[in-house]
Every structure is written in structure tokens, then in C-alpha cells.
Amino acid sequence: MTDRTQxxxxxAELIEPFNKKGVELTDSTTFAGDLxxxxxxxxxxxxxxxxxxxxxITMNMQAEIxxxxxxxxxVDKLKTED
Length: 82
Description:
Layout: H1 3-15, H2 39-53, H3 59-64, H4 68-81
């Protein structure tokens, strides 16, 4: 299993409690559109991702991340910068 596959699996696990509609997750699943998250849910979720991976996702990065795939790539990138 690649690092990205493992990261996707962990991110999917973190999304689960917030996935009220049971949306099937893919790289192209959007947080605002498919999951219908508001900014409060996004903030809670981002905090859980930061804690899990011991990274910091800046506000600028958050603004650019719209899909699960983009988040997985960002997490992988931040983990390697550590």
C-alpha cells in the first residue's frame, strides 16, 4: 500500500463522523458540494486532521482545498516537509 493510499484511508476514517449523508468518498468528493459541510464543520475536521498527522494546514491552504484528493495530497506534502 502506498503512502498516499494510507493517507487517503486515514483521511476517510476522519471524515466518517462528519459524513452525515453517507457519501461515498473518492478523490473528487467535494467538502462543500458533496458532503455539504459548513465552515464550522470544516474547522472541526481540519483540527482533527492536524492532530492525527501532526501537521499545520494554513488558512491559505484550506481555501485552496476543495476535494478529498486535494486534501490527501496536501497532507502527504506536509508530512514530507516535517
